[in-house]
Amino acid sequence: MIAADVIIVNKLGLHARAASRLVNCASGFAAEIEIVRGTRSVNAKSIMGVLTLAAALGTELVIEVDGPDEQQALEAVVALFQDRFGEDE
Amino acid sequence: MTLALTGHAVARGIAIGHCHLVERNELDIGEYRIGVDEVEREIQRYRNAVEAARRQLEELAGRVIQNVGIGAGEIIQTHVMMLGDSRLQDSTEQHIRRELCNAEWALQMQLEQVLSEFRSLDDAYIRSRGEDVAQVVRLIQNKLNEEAADKPFENMPDRLAETLVISSELTPGELAVLHERGVGGIVTEHGGPHSHTAILASSFGIPAVMGVRRAQALLREGETLVLDGGLGVVYADPDEAIHNHYHQVQRITRRFKKSLEAIRDLPASSLDGQLISLQANAERPAELQLAREQGANGIGLYRTEFLYLQGAPPAEEEQLAEFASAIELLGGIPLTIRTLDLGADKSTDYLDFSQLRRCANPALGLRAVRLCLRDTDLFKTQLRAILRASALGPVRCLIPMLTSVQEIRMVRFLLDEAREELDARSMAYDPDMPIGGMIEVPAAALAITELAPHLDFISVGTNDLLQYTLAADRVDEQVAHLYDPQHPGVVRLLRYIFREANASRIPATVCGEVAGDRQYTRLLLALGLKDFSMHPGRLLEVKQVVRETDIPKAKAALTGWFNTTPTETGSSLLKVIDDSQRSG
Question: Which of B78, B118, B125 has its CB closest to that of A47?
């Protein structure tokens, strides 16, 4: 298993659109991807799970990935966070 | 007789047309047992229903992306994702296997569990996503029961251009179908401003009022309705006056919008060539975005109360993150951050307002900077966040409700302490960050020459200043008529403020509602104001008036008005100034 810390940098946080993009991205990998906020952890492939994290701008999260394509999956998910989920400026 | 119903104003615009009531068929979800040998067949039935729902929504989402845009289509794709979410799909199938019950019931049980999770969240927007899950579940349940299914569009005409659709509720997908059929406007009994249907109605440009109680029972099929989405009102059987009024409004609005678009990229310069600064009052990303789009010269009032109304007091880092994202969004135009302005009208759990509530007159009590100077830890946390934000872009700090020089001294003392604390942590800030005061207390207005040497700028909060000067609360219906910005006493006070600020060489802004009300623009220009701050949606309207004003002529008219004993009512003042613009 590998993991990385991320901070939400897009203004709207993990709102519906960002959450959809995250789930879309995560679902493209075989690895299990968990998003951890404090003591809570949700499946990154579940839109409902990601939404209930209610992660706003500035929230610190940990991404844990476990599986055959974990390296690519982690890179792709982290890139998505850094890219603000493609949110317009 | 005209009947007026009210609800949430979720999408602006006026619609006039015939009422169409959507007949909805609420499915009755019951539980029944299935045999062990029927489990696989039940699961297959469930999967088929999900598949049918998915096909329907995906096809719709494709059309919406094509015809409206990606943003709108993604809302529907969110529903597609929910259909196949493991929390729904896997757990429903497990429930069928374990409990040996029908798919509808198993799904219902999962829904209730998911909903309770959403309801426990603090964030109103995210909480509202529970509605989306419920809508998705209902779609699957309808697919499981094709014969008894809810078919809202069955008796609906294909073309809805002159039609207002009334429904107990509408899903985003249903709204998209109505949009394709050219619906004039929508009214729902349930749902609120955070719902995806509301958001979608705005992006489709469909006037909509939601949360109208008993709309289905009170409105009649086929009758004429007038819907005002900006006000959140639906008129049934409107009399001729209402009807004509709204027809006229529709026409004028179209013409007016065109004339505003034409000046979007032109400067706010008066006929005599003076350049006027027009800033925006804004704090949420959408407002900041709008401010930029409408060409604001800066954010003249960035309120911070929203940070304090969400449970725990916001930490320095949390506030800084908000300020940082605003600064980034603004792309270099200045941001004026107002320190906490909580008091009589808003309260939070962690700020103890019990004392405040006990006091007879909260508007004259412990609020704004008075409260901040009482709870200095709370205040300094915010001052540090504002100081750190000043390292990231042009930031000014605005102190609300100042009364005396002594208060400014205390604020400056706390600012020095905050700077030292930041120095100790090696945190950057702009040492020259301007500190301004809001002029809302009449005594402060009359002491402007004493206050000015201690301030870098002033911002006149006309809403409170007028309320205190006229001793009339504008939200109290019984005395609201006394709240008159043209009262000679108010006009004299404003003239005094701008004159003395000018003599003391400190810039003055007005950030109250009169700044964004185009009927007062010329009066404020005549009084010598050169910097306005208003709701970003008003920037173009005010710019239009500025561009059509000859300021020296307006000033002369105002002087003339002061010199004749103003026995006439204040309303003539605006007319005197407007008339001055017409004379050669």
Answer: B78
